[in-house]
Design a protein that fits this description.
The protein has helices at 21-40, 48-61, 71-88, 103-108, 113-119, 121-128, 132-142, 148-155, 159-180. By secondary structure, the protein is mainly α.
C-alpha cells in the first residue's frame, strides 16, 4: 500500500513542530498494516485501499490533533468515521460486475483468523444479536488488540467507561451465545 501526499510541507508548520513529512513517513510505516487490516475485516475488498488512504490523508491534515502515545486508537476512531461515511454513500453496481464475485480475491490473500470466526454461523448469529456499539467494542478489543487506554481513546470514553463497555459487551455476547446453546 503506497500513499503519497502532494504538498507535504505545510506553510502552517512551525520550526519547532516535529510532525513534518519525516514524522508522517514513520507514522505511516508503523500503522499502515493495522489500518489496512481494519478495513479488510469490515469493507468490500475493492474499497480497502481507498479507505486506508483516506484515513492517512485525514491523519496528515490533522496531525497536530493525533494524541502522542495513542496514535493507533486515534487512527481506528478515524477509520470508523471514514467507514461510516463510506457506507452512507450511494453505490452503483455495473451489470458487468455481477458474477465476478470476490471468491478469487479472497483465496489469493492469506486467511485472517477473524474471518474464520465470523464465517462460523453460530458466532455470526450471536454477534448479530448485539448492538452495533457492542460489536464495535468487541472487534476493537479482539481483532485490533485494544484495551485499557487504547480502547478508551478509540471509543472516545474514559478508561473506566471503556472497561465497562467491554464488560457489558462480553456479557451480552455470552448471553446471546447461551440463548442459542
Amino acid at each position: 500500500m503506497a500513499l503519497r501526499l502532494a504538498g507535504s510541507e505545510s506553510p502552517a508548520m512551525s520550526g519547532t513542530d516535529l510532525r513534518d513529512a519525516t514524522w508522517f513517513d514513520g507514522f505511516f510505516a508503523q500503522h499502515a498494516t493495522a489500518i489496512h487490516r481494519y478495513f479488510v475485516r469490515r469493507a468490500n475488498h475493492s474499497d480497502v485501499e481507498d479507505l486506508s488512504a483516506e484515513v492517512f490523508a485525514t491523519a496528515w491534515r490533522r496531525r497536530d490533533k493525533v494524541p502522542e502515545g495513542f496514535e493507533l486508537p486515534w487512527l481506528y476512531k478515524t477509520a470508523s468515521f471514514v467507514l461510516a461515511n463510506h457506507r452512507r454513500k450511494p453505490t452503483l453496481t455495473l451489470i458487468a460486475d455481477y458474477g465476478t464475485g470476490e471468491e478469487g480475491a479472497r483465496t489469493s490473500r492469506s486467511v485472517d483468523p477473524a474471518e474464520l470466526v465470523m464465517a462460523d454461523d453460530e458466532v455470526r448469529r450471536a454477534m448479530s444479536k448485539l448492538s452495533a456499539r457492542d460489536r464495535t467494542v468487541l472487534m476493537l478489543h479482539a481483532w485490533e488488540g485494544l484495551d485499557g487506554e487504547g480502547l478508551a481513546h478509540a471509543l472516545g470514553l474514559t478508561r473506566g467507561g471503556a472497561a465497562a463497555a467491554l464488560s457489558r459487551a462480553r456479557a451480552r455476547l455470552r448471553n446471546a451465545w447461551d440463548d442459542d446453546h
